[in-house]
Amino acid sequence: MSSQVIISKSALLHNLRAFRRAIGDVWVMAVVKSNAYGHGMIPMAQAVEGLTDWFGVVSGSEALVLRKAGIKKPILVLSFYDSNQIVELVKHKISLAVYDLKQAQAISAAAKKFKITANIHLKVDTGTSRLGIFSPAVVSFVEKLLHLPNIKIEGVFSHFAASEENLDFTFKQDVWFSSVIEELEWRGVDPIQHIACTAASVVAPKSRHCMVRLGIGLYGLWPSIQAQKRANFALKPALGWQTGVIQVKDLLKGANVGYGLSYKTKRPTKLAILPVGYFDGYDRKLSNQGEVLIGGKRCKVLGRVCMNLIMVDVTDVTNVKIGDTAVLIGRQGREEITADELAKKIGTINYEVVTRINPLIPRIIK
């Protein structure tokens, strides 16, 4: 018995349709990088392919996995790829981010060799100081690109630094991005334009341009309270995480629980052991403060989260037995534990909570 991640396809499609209604007549790129934010890249892509226009991935390897899984829609590698992957990527009609002239030259050479055209998306740094060409240098960079054979500047994109919380800087970034687009269009380049993420699609409508990159929102999670408040629609979390009880035991008052003797029972305690730990992505910071749902009730994690096990207090739950379902994320009865709740307890963001769930754990689509 181990844990499993349950994905609601209906929730996923609800979220995608809700964003489509909200953003209007622009394309949607479903971002399925990093194992679809922990949800399972291949099944997520297969589930939404009929309702999305593009897919976004972080690496060349992810893009090739999607193509080999039968995904037909356009795919953009948003960040990086190995030089020895370029030929295969171009052959599979995968669009590539470019932010360095040597990259572009390698892509051009590969495409020329096989007599095909490679589609690239120019990555512009408008203030996040990650990947990308600084916006003032874009024009001279593009002039060099235009002399390279077998390359088409299919798109231009950038990335907001703080659309979840700082609208002033977000608007500045979009102004800089728009000025780059104007310069490109003046030179006869009319690319697909995209900068808006989940948050920006809601809080900065003008930033939607041709396409919105839908990441965390696709999976039913909000990137910030501000974005959630600005939206006129609700999302449904698509991910649930559950395991099962593998042992139940009775402890006397004063018994030690777990490594480091970090918890001592304050009363006679019924303890349930669950086969999940920090190897699986259940954060060690949840030691002595996490909760799970068993029998529709919240049960506190006692002692330290182990590599493969946690211990929970089921004293107040009736007739707990081996095989009973324990919910780590999701709803059981009237209670619910959310990724946001766990993120708050461990001092991080909901993105990290779901993305760190071990990819070896089965993802089951329902």
UniProtKB/TrEMBL annotation:
Task: From the UniProt record, give the pathway where this protein acts.
Answer: Amino-acid biosynthesis; D-alanine biosynthesis; D-alanine from L-alanine: step 1/1
> Which stretches make up the Alanine racemase C-terminal domain?
238-366
Residue numbers of N6-(pyridoxal phosphate)lysine PTMs: K33
Q: EC? A: 5.1.1.1
Report the cofactors: pyridoxal 5'-phosphate
Q: Where is the signal peptide?
A: none
GO terms, molecular function:
alanine racemase activity; pyridoxal phosphate binding
Q: Which residues form the active site?
A: K33 (proton acceptor), Y259 (proton acceptor)
Q: Which family does it belong to?
A: Belongs to the alanine racemase family.
What is the official name of this protein in its record?
Answer: Alanine racemase
Its domain of life reads Bacteria
Q: Which SMART domains match?
A: Ala_racemase_C
> What are its GO cellular component terms?
cytosol
Which biological process, per GO, is one annotated for this protein? D-alanine biosynthetic process
Which organism encodes this protein?
Candidatus Doudnabacteria bacterium RIFCSPLOWO2_01_FULL_44_21
Task: Kindly list the positions annotated as binding substrate.
Answer: R130, M307
The record's keywords, sorted A to Z, are: Isomerase, Pyridoxal phosphate
Please name the InterPro entries in this protein's record: Ala_racemase (IPR000821), Ala_racemase/Decarboxylase_C (IPR009006), Ala_racemase_C (IPR011079), Ala_racemase_N (IPR001608), Ala_racemase_pyridoxalP-BS (IPR020622), PLP-binding_barrel (IPR029066)
Q: Which Pfam families match?
A: Ala_racemase_C, Ala_racemase_N
Query: Catalytic activity annotated for this protein?
Result: L-alanine = D-alanine
